[in-house]
């Protein structure tokens, strides 16, 4: 149903990265706002996951992040299809060997992108207060694999000689995101290891950089607008089984006619 809807609005498919970013902003804003409004958090600035612990935030948090994961997967798939079409048309003007390398890099990028969306889906489905281990596994996948995905896509953009703004956006965004990730992971691990009460400033730094990291990861998708705008037609063909049988029978009859005619000529 989602794919059919995207086919109906294929002329506006280039807006999908913007819609995805707006959705993630709305998601975080909604859960943060509800958590503060309901007094469900006593922290000055909680981690993202802790804004969806109590009701009704927990249900809303799961729903919003699930939709975000689906959007992320759709972006990754459309990007993969665009790169594959570009490789087939040899827009990179490279040898067959390099085409195979780019093709495999594109496949790896799709797998990494889909795994990243699965990690985000795990964060949405497994709440941090009840199922901590799968939640942390999903969070690690959702934060680490996108960094790999960003590097792969930046390399593909460079090889395909896309518009300069796309490559610059991806390179700058990737570098900034990696820096934010380091700033986030160091105080996060330090707080978990030390377990001291006088580390409020360090803890606050980890929480702020976690939010910035999530927003920066999604901001990378904006660079896909240029290639998505070149996509004109997305079709979904549906055929009944009985129609398929009729088509095969008709095709078989057409193949039998020349054979019969040839046999008659041989007899004559």
TrEMBL record:
Q: Which residues cross the membrane?
A: 12-35, 60-82, 103-124, 136-155, 167-191, 211-228
* UniProt xrefs under InterPro entries: CWH43_N, DRAM/TMEM150_Autophagy_Mod
Membrane topology type = Multi-pass membrane protein
Chief place where the protein resides:
membrane
The entry's localization annotation reads: Endomembrane system
Keyword vocabulary terms for this entry:
Membrane, Transmembrane, Transmembrane helix
- State the GO CC annotations: endomembrane system
- The CWH43-like N-terminal domain extends over 13-226
Per the record, the similarity remark reads: Belongs to the DRAM/TMEM150 family.
The record's section on PANTHER family has: EG:22E5.9 PROTEIN, FASTING-INDUCIBLE INTEGRAL MEMBRANE PROTEIN TM6P1-RELATED
Its name, as the record gives it, is: CWH43-like N-terminal domain-containing protein
Origin species, per record, is Mytilus edulis
